[in-house]
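Annotated sample (chain length 134).
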Amino acid sequence: LLFLSCIFQMDTTQESYLDLFPLDAIVYLTPDSENVLEDIDPDKVYVLGGLVDESIHKKLTLQRAQEQSLQTARLPIREYMVKTFNTKNYHSETLAINQVFDVLSTYYETQSWPAALKAGVSSGKGYVLPDAVK
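Output written by the structure step:
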């Protein structure tokens, strides 16, 4: 797993984030969370829960976070974006780790969720900003 501390400090390690940080400082990002990430707290460590798999395993990252008694949050895609018509009727809030990183780093720089989501959520996910709907 990749974890971000104060957004720009990125580390990889074989150690568990559970051994490196206090539980109350960890926020596990998962698209299945009920909690919306409203702002980035520089005192928190954000874990980007990811799977290297072609299929999407619903609620697996949420279940993992809950088993570890961690706070969870999801990106505010539903709050700032709208579903767009596409021929596959496909809409997904599940993003690749690099897309989540792009969203978080853009938000940290701009303090704008629309700008951040535009930077990281491709139209292929079936979501666009409201001003992009024609």
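Annotation: The chain is about 30% helix and 15% strand.
Annotation: The domain at 2-128 is CATH 3.40.1280.30 (Alpha/beta knot).
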